[in-house]
Design a protein that fits this description.
The complex is a heterodimer of chains A (257) and B (202). Chain A has 9 helices and 2 strands. With 257 residues, chain A is mainly α. A two-stranded antiparallel ribbon of chain A has the order 1-2. In chain B, helix 2 crosses helix 4. Classes of the chains: A mainly alpha (257), B mainly alpha (202). At the A-B interface, helix 2, helix 4, helix 5, helix 7 and helix 8 of A face helix 1, helix 2, strand 1, helix 4 and helix 7 of B.
Amino acid sequence: MLDEPFARGTSFLHRADPRAKLAALAVFSLAVAVAPDLRSPALALLLGAGLAAWAGLLGRNLARRLVVVNAFIVFLWLLVPFTTPGEAVWSLGPVVATVQGLRLCAAMTLKANAITLAFLALAATSDAATLGQALERLGLPAKLAFLLLFTYRFIHVLAAEQSRLATAARLRGFRPRTNAHTYRTLASLLAMVLVGAVRRAEMARRAMVLRAFDGRLATLRVFTLRRADAVFLGAMLAATCMLGALEIAHVLAHVSG
Amino acid sequence: MHISEGVLSAPILAGGAVLAAAGTAIGLRRLDYDRLVTVAILSAAFFVGSLVHVPVGLSNAHLVLNGLIGAALGWASFPAILVGLTLQAVLFQYGGITALGVNTFNMAAPAVACCYLFRPLLAGTGKARAVGAFCCGAGGVLLAALLTAASLALTDEGFIRSAQVLVLAHVPVMLAEGLLTIPLVAYLSKADPEFFSARLAG
């Protein structure tokens, strides 16, 4: 569950400088998120899908991630078209769907999927440790970068601990149901993980102090921005500017019209 | 509880990002290097804990644990939750970049509120501690659901009904989390009496 299936691969996007990928992703996501109409999110979705295909991510794993993201969107589709005030396009008794409601839902769907696909192609193609280091080079505060990297490192340790305890409980015949016994059992299981974590933290802290830890996580990794990375970043920025120009044109047309 | 990318309006996204950045800055300033390792490992523990499925009637729910995070970590909840949501985005791709600020604020602000409101009760014993634990678990989820609903409702009039449904749907989750937090806090206080002291939260 905690493996990173998208981070394995040999495509250009897997090998590109993660700093360039993160910068491209940030501007692209922002431009899509604030888009006022449907045209630029639709183009962005095509671009996102193109990036995911380029990274070789198309497949069952990708579909599964998109289902999770779209669950919330589907929930909104069930209500929003009928609760948004505006021009009616369809009605069944008291239930009236409006143009504005449908447009809102369509925009959400396009934007959510475009941003998620871009995220998968540009962020998830690096593992979390690489992303943490890249974020630090991009100016993330050192303490926050340390927290990110260290939390990531210990998630795997504690998940193993948690599943060991869960297996032990299952072997004794524990089956979760909605009752006090289940809640007490899950609570003690979780408490054991937390208490173990505090103990482990104290040991790790002492060991690090002994090795002259001064708050910085020294790393041997060097990121280099190759020419191909720079060209890619430039192309992504240009594409994002075009999306932005479309959006601005739409707003201006709206204001003057 | 987690709002997808592309749903919220620009002012809400910007407001959430600014508030989350402010909270994170306060949390980081109060977090000295001596406690950094402990907070990181506890964040990992809470991350793992939030993956546990808890049966609620016919369905089951994930724990949110933000109330308990608040009681344990205080203002450090902001960086801890920001890191948790970032890792969730990278490992499970639930979220992306633009809604990260809003989602962080919606979970971490209730955590800090729980720290101030209920942590004094958790240091007590018996009934007071049990009441504090329930309020901490249920209150964290309730406040987070209300903030999430408010982010939706302020984005567009059309979301108001969905926001109401969202809060109602979280009532069973609130109760489950509140009930589960009672034995959890009792166990923690017994095994590590200093767990809810200022040692961790600063």
